[in-house]
Design brief:
Order of helices and strands: HHHHHHHHHHHH
Distance between the termini: 12 Å
Shape: globular
Strand content: under 5%
Largest sheet: none
Structural class: mainly alpha
Number of strands: 0
Length: 317
């Protein structure tokens, strides 16, 4: 009898290994959906706990990096960074190397370095130019791509032309658990950089990164069991689902700006138009949230029921 999803996930965390699941595409999609539903439900719960905890300590989330990105960029750019760039960058940084290959590890190295530089506050140093490694400017994009290519090439030559590659393979086989949990922890810690002025509540860091740790576990599991591209898709979907309310909010505020710019003289018409838009946006938002929560509940009930059914069957044997 095959293991339930929860049992397999627990085994993956208890005895980490880079073993890939050999199964048809339909089962991969079904695992993908169930892991996504499980982690997203846990992320919502933990996210609420984080917000409530920070509010108890009078910490404001107004300066959160995602909120700044939303305010300072256009909607297409916000979607691109959230749904395309961030997932590719972070999966290359934290999970591409979870199965050893000289090429994959070489590509990961420059991304890992950039992530660590962000974590230690390198970009805030006074001598570091604002454009360095920034993909929103031409000069920054050139520095970003140049760094990636140079470090990846040097890493690949080092791994293939010296004995370092074979020694790393042995390290993977002996200390894979250390590698896995280090990547999950680093993924969580890097997301602390999304918050400004955490020095006053630094002791809350273990609570603040809980949602990211859950996401990191889910992404690591999918990456190892199903492959790197599945992990990127999983990450992109997670970010897309999370940004849809922001997209709806943008259409809502755009309507108000449009009405104001048109300077409609007919107050009754203006109010009617605004009310209609409010109604549509509210209906779409409520429908999205309602359907989303319903699907999360249904899929997670199935996943939990599957675990307990198999658990009690095994107990009877």
């Amino acid at each position: 009898m095959s293991k339930s999803l929860i049992a397999d996930l627990v085994d993956f965390l208890r005895l980490p290994s880079p073993e890939k699941a050999a199964e048809p595409i339909t089962l991969k999609i079904w695992r993908f959906v169930r892991v996504f539903a499980l982690q997203y439900a846990l992320t919502i719960i933990l996210g609420v706990i984080v917000v409530l905890t920070l509010s108890l300590f009078s910490y404001s989330l107004d300066d959160h990096a995602v909120g700044k990105l939303f305010d300072e960029t256009s909607l297409p750019m916000f979607i691109f960074f959230s749904v395309v760039f961030a997932p590719v960058f972070e999966e290359a940084s934290f999970r591409l190397f979870l199965r050893y290959s000289a090429l994959g590890l070489s590509i990961s190295v420059p991304f890992v370095i950039l992530s660590i530089l962000s974590l230690v506050g390198f970009y805030n140093l006074p001598f570091v130019p604002d454009w360095l490694f920034s993909v929103v400017s031409f000069k920054g994009l050139l520095s970003f791509l140049g760094f990636l290519i140079a470090v990846a090439v040097i890493s690949y030559l080092t791994l293939t032309k010296t004995t370092l590659g074979k020694r790393l393979e042995k390290f993977y086989s002996r200390f894979y658990g250390v590698l896995l949990y280090s990547s999950i922890l680093l993924f969580g810690l890097v997301h602390l950089t999304n918050f400004d002025n955490l020095s006053s509540v630094w002791y809350l860091a273990p609570i603040i990164i809980l949602p990211q740790l859950v996401v990191g576990i889910a992404l690591s599991y999918i990456r190892v069991r199903q492959g790197f591209l599945w992990g990127v898709l999983f990450h992109s979907l997670h970010n897309l689902v999370s940004t849809i309310p922001a997209i709806l909010y943008t259409f809502h505020t755009f309507h108000y700006q449009l009405v104001d710019e048109m300077k409609l003289s007919n107050e009754i018409l203006q109010n009617a138009t605004v009310s209609t838009t409010d109604l549509i946006v509210s209906a779409v938002t409520l429908g999205y949230v309602g359907i989303g929560i319903s699907l999360l509940v249904i899929v997670n009930i199935f996943t939990v029921a599957e675990y307990f059914i198999q658990f009690f069957k095994n107990k009877k044997k």
